[in-house]
Amino acid sequence: MPVAKTKAKTQSAKSSKTPVYKNFIGGKWVASKTGETFENRNPADWREVVGVFQKSDARDVDDAVNAAADAYKEWRLVPAPKRAEILYKVGERLIHERERISQEMTREMGKILKETRGDTQEAIDMSYYMAGEGRRQFGHTTPSELKNKFQMSVRQPMGVCGMITPWNFPIAIPSWKIMPALVCGNTIVIKPATDTPLSVANFMKVLDECGIPPGVVNMVTGSGRNVGEPLINHNEVKLVSFTGSTEVGRTVSSLCGPSFKHSCLEMGGKNAQIVMDDADLDLALEGALWGGFGTTGQRCTATSRVIIHKKIYKKFVDAYVERAQKIKVGNGLNEKIEMGPAVNEGQLKTVEEYVKIGQKDDGAKLLCGGNRLERGDLKHGWFHEPTVFGDVHHKMRIAQEEIFGPVVSLIPVSTFEEAIEVCNGIAYGLSASIYTRDVNKAFTAMRDVYTGIFYVNAPTIGAEVHLPFGGTKATGNGHREAGQAALDVFSEWKAIYVDFSGSLQKAQIED
Ligand code: NAD
């Protein structure tokens, strides 16, 4: 997947007023050693340059990791409740900055303001939640099998954490990684997606202003190859936390493997909403529309498949298509707009490619959409119609592969058992949902759908920060972000035994 917006058509709107952003290393904003930069353009109007960013390389990564390694010596010794006080301040500050940060996020990646406000809100929620963990991070004490012996388990930080993030949740996802890492006592180097470095720069500024000591958080911008890989490969980096495509996640995993470096991988999804014949159809319809076209379908948890019982298939499909066609597409800064553009030209082309695959190779029925939008001002952005395929067989490529755009496949099934089988019959395992009034079916689905997240009578999107987030199969490598589970990613357990008997006691050995 291309990581930079296409520059070919983009000559005009860079002016002397265009802000230039630097890397954030050791508490200072510094230019890259390469002396090169890249442009960050607005996907709703690519004539606008939102900012100019550093095109960094391994030398900048080295500086940032060294700064983080230095800062770790002190930060790990700051009491966790004191670290947490800073996180609390970050939450407060983000509330004051929420509107500006959200407006800038819409300008850099296109999703509508309501959603970018929600994105920033997630970072606020995560700051407060992890601030609370400063006074928890509970371990266990447990009786010993021997006399006069005490034992407990404690969490210990790991050191410098490398973080590589995608563009679809530009501040929420960095916060899911940064906040638990900080409260556990680690230091950080983050490489944001090249489409959304501004949101992470805004986050760095807030962290800095709230009193995070120099070197504890660092940001280096640039490509996956030139910044991401050196970050993963750096000896001082003890853990890599990655969110992005399964393809790149596999690379991250293979780079970490030889040295047994920890990696936490949050990857792709192909999420399904099941609609049973006894469902509240209006509710199911609202859920499938929000899940399918929210964030222009560019959510890892997007409802890209709707599995519908044949008895209500026609009724549901007619209503779904009618509503999908009415979705207002445009610049997300306009409060009346319901769906923004694709994040960049590469993503738009992927969507166009899958529309062709759906029609020609798969032979699915295109029920609405299918075209790029170029009327009026939309021609300056990467807009695509909300697109719906009907009579989709669950083995078709459009029903199996992650498209990451406003394309939804409607799949008819005859029974509840078939719905579960189709839901599970993909490589990914992030999120799924069921709409039904039958409590037995709801509980059976809760048990039998093999995903990391499951909803009943709600869409496949809408996770909250205090429960574990992540997926099974090709979506993840067994870790979870958010909730207390995130602490397990960013700390290691240490079991401590204290023998106060004054003699050598031997566990498991008979005298
Ligand atoms: P991507 O994999 O293209 O890029 C993710 C990050 O990896 C970017 O910062 C990119 O620059 C970097 N990168 C690329 N190549 C690299 C390399 N060789 N070495 C190191 N870093 C490299 O993904 P994207 O297009 O930014 O985001 C979309 C994908 O992210 C989708 O597949 C989506 O499902 C997934 N996603 C998953 C979750 C989740 O929690 N499971 C959440 C959001 C997005």
Query: How many domains make up the 3D coordinates?
Result: 2
**Strand adjacency order, main sheet:** 13-14-15-12-11-17-18
Helical content band: 25-40%
Structure annotation, total helices: 14
> What is the makeup of the main sheet?
7 strands, mixed
* Number of E-state strands: 20
What would the average pLDDT be, to the nearest integer?
96
CATH C-level class of the largest domain: Alpha Beta
Q: Which class best fits the helix and strand makeup?
A: alpha/beta
What are the bound molecules?
nicotinamide-adenine-dinucleotide
CA(first)-CA(last) distance: 65 Å
Enter the CATH topology name of the largest domain: Aldehyde Dehydrogenase, Chain A, domain 1
CATH homologous superfamily label of the largest domain: Aldehyde Dehydrogenase, Chain A, domain 1
Shape: globular
**Cα-atom radius of gyration:** 24 Å
Strand content: 15-25%
Low-confidence stretches: 1-11
| CATH architectural designation of the largest domain | 3-Layer(aba) Sandwich
What would you note in describing this structure?
By secondary structure, the chain is an alpha/beta fold. It has helices at residues 58-75, 80-109, 113-133, 172-183, 197-209, 224-233, 246-256, 281-293, 310-325, 345-361, 397-400, 416-424, 439-448, 485-490; strands at residues 23-25, 28-30, 37-42, 45-54, 149-156, 160-164, 187-191, 217-219, 237-243, 262-266, 271-275, 303-309, 365-368, 387-390, 407-413, 428-429, 431-435, 453-456, 472-473, 492-499. Strands 13-14-15-12-11-17-18 form a seven-stranded mixed sheet, with helices on both faces. The chain is globular. Nicotinamide-adenine-dinucleotide is lined by residues 1, 3, 164-169, 191, 193-194, 223-225, 228-229, 232, 243-245, 248, 251-252, 266-269, 300, 402, 404, 430, 471, 475.
